[in-house]
Amino acid sequence: MRISLFTILALLMTGSQSHSAALTVTFTNMSGDAINAVTAIPKGAVDAEATNLLAAPITNGEPADVSIQADDGQCVFDLNFAFASGKTLERPDTDLCQTDGIMVE
Question: Which residues contact 100 (CB under 8 A, 6 or more apart)?
Fold first, then answer.
């Protein structure tokens, strides 16, 4: 049985690629202040860049669905919320695979 070099390389490349998926989480703002930014850094990430995941602020009393890119098996994130008033809220070690909604107070 002969296997071409191309087939072997294709198998090796497929096995080493990491796959990512979007986790969708509904953030409901009950803080009394508009949320201007949400960031989600994978737990243990060393060089991850904090990028605002919101297309628009989340006003008080409103929910917003947010997509968070995650590698296969990545569930735990350090969340950070920045409010219009300038205050921030951290929610470290948040398992996004165990919830589809988070109330921000």
Answer: 24, 25, 26
